[in-house]
Every structure is written in C-alpha cells, then in structure tokens.
Amino acid sequence: MFDLKWIREQPEAFDKGLARRGLPPQSPEILRLDKVWREAQTEAERLQAERNRLSKEIGNAKAKGQDVAALLKEVAASKDRQAAMEAEAAERYRAVEAALAVIPNVPADDVPDGHDASANREMRRHGTPPSFGFKPRDHAAIGEALGLMDFARAGKLSGARFVVLRGQLARLERALAQFMIDIHTREFGYTEVSPPLLVRDEAVYGTGSLPKFADDLFRTTTGLWLIPTAEVPLTNLVADEILEEARLPLRFTAWTPCFRSEAGAAGKDTRGMIRQHQFYKVELVSIAHPEQSGEEHERMTACAEAILKRLGLAYRVMLLSAGDMGFAVRKTYDIEVWLPGQDAYREISSCSNCGDFQARRMKARFRPKEGKGTRFVHTLNGSGLAIGRTLIAVLENYQQGNGTVAVPDVLKPYMAGLEAIGGDV
Asked: Could you tell me which CATH number the domain at 117-421 has?
C-alpha cells in the first residue's frame, strides 16, 4: 500500500517506479479516485459544519422564546444528507484502497532494471561446488534408491507435488530444522515463535497475498487460509499496533509447514521435491526502524548465508531485478545453492525488504522517542532456510559412490552421531 499524499505530490516518481516493473502509469486513475473521494469527504464535512451552525441557531432561538420547529426539521434533513454523504465517501475511499491493493511495491533505487531473472545481478559467491569420481545423481534418484523417499505413495495419498520421507531422511529433515532454529535463536537474536497455520483474510491481505494472489493459496471451508509461509503470521504479530521506538528491531523466527497451490507453476519442477504443495521452512522476520531497514536487510541475508556456510554448501547471492521481485518487496536478495544433480544454482532463500508497504496495509506503526505522532515500521522477511531444498542440497552435495549420503558434521549431533544416510543406524 502507498502513501496517497506522496502519490498526489509526486505522481511522476510513482509511475516511474512502477514502470521499472513493466507497468503502465497508475497515478491518473488513482488520483481520479482520490479526487472523487475527497469531494465526497469535503461535502460531508460541509454538512457537519452546517448542522453545527443550525444547532447554534436553535439554541439562540430557544433563548429568545422563538419557535424552532422549522430549524429542527432542517437539522434532521441535514443529518440525513450528512449520513448519506459519509457513507458515499466511505464507499469511494474503499475504491481507492481496492485500486491501490493490487499495485506492487516500488523498487528501491539500487535494484537493477529488467523484466525478468536475466537482469538479476550476482553479488558474491561462496564455496566451491564438489567434484565427484562418478556421475552425480539428483536428490530424487538418491532418495528413491535408498528407499527413504516415496513419491508414488504420496501420490496415492494426496496427488502430485507431495512426498513421503522415511527413517533417516525424515530424521534429516527434522535435524535441519532444529539446527537452523538453534543458530538463529542462540546466535543471531531471533525469538522463536510457534504461530497459527490458519489465518484470516486480514493477515494474508496485510502481507500482500490478497487480493491479487488468492489462487496461489489454499483456503478452508470455514474461510481461513493455510499459510504459504510463516511470514504471514509473524509479520502480522504487530498489525494494528503502535510500538515504542526502543523496541525496534523485533526479530522473529518460526519453523512451520507451508502450503502453496503453485497455480502458476504448471510444468515447472514436476520431478522431485523442488516445488511442492506442502513443505517446511524456517522463516526470519524483522520489524525495523525505517532508517535501519537497509542494514537489517544485509544482516538477515548474512544470517541465512551462515547456515549454508556451516553446512559446507556452495552458493551465490543474487540481487533481483525490478521485474523479478515479489509483489510486496522493494529489494530482494536470492540465495542460490549449488545442486550437482541439476548442474545449476537454485534458489534456497529469498531475503526481502518491504519498506513500509506491508506496514501500511497492516497499520503497524511506532512512536518516535522525539517528536509527535507515529510512523510506519519497515518489515523484512527471509528464508533461513527452506528445509526441503536444504535437504535436497545435502543429498546431492554429500552423495557418495556407494549410494549413501555423508552427514554434514554440524548435523551429526542432531542425528545421534550417524555418519551416513543409508549406512548403519
């Protein structure tokens, strides 16, 4: 959501920012709706002033013993006109909000121009992809050969884009999540949260998935939404609240299942665990001071990178172009891990700064220590990391010639000292 005052004062800047996302000018329609709303609001205020004047006249007339019947009738009529105009003004403002609700955030100045991933900019790389004395297999081939990854039975239970993990692989999935949560809470200062997995319309709207991306979500028959990521409940912890400046930044993390319909992903990554309807993820969310959100963004990205470094996985960090970013964000770093089975880097985390875009939708503010009034917070979110894709990366990078998978040293305490998946328990 945007500041209407800013659009009125700088419509060219608003349209220029959206043009970087490939959108035509939006300010003419927004300003037209805004003008219609303000006209109705001004008329409602004029009618209120008229009623105040009439009330004073009634008081003066009564003091003089004059007949006030005609004035009372005029006040009643004015009251009805005011109520009607206030209702009309409210309806017109809803039209303004509806128009703004489907417009994406404006990219930050340092975001590269471009309409797709081809314009993304590589920022850095870490680690060297492993070399094998054999042709590396992808995670699906590895897991199925071990008898610990079952897509066929998952398909019988739930259809496509689901998997059943057994035994050591199920334990590895849990170990990864516990390892990540421990690092983020014990070392990086995030507060662990166990949030609801079902949320109301307001929560999904607050982070930007509604109304435009309803088809990407799952909804229950009671009207609640299954969370597509823990970003939704974690960010909404501060919805409709006014925080004290001294509390910022707030940092939350959660390990939850996530649910996505993948409506726009037909034909993409149909093999294996890369893109599923249900998956686990450790989410990072920060509620930051506007002047500190840039620094917080770099910090959050470094926290996600730290997990990959400790797992010994090669990766690169990409700054996304204006046309490749998500709806609510103004700047995003994608962290892409090396997958030998695909001979490519693939996304394992997106760390994004949303500025005050989500905060305006959620009405999340803070009270500055100095000065009057309140300001909107900045919100940030990132994967720290996606559990399924991290499991994929471990399987493919730590595969061995005998079909087993070595367990990274940092995970052995979570695996009761197990040396290899597929080896002796």
From this structure: 3.30.930.10
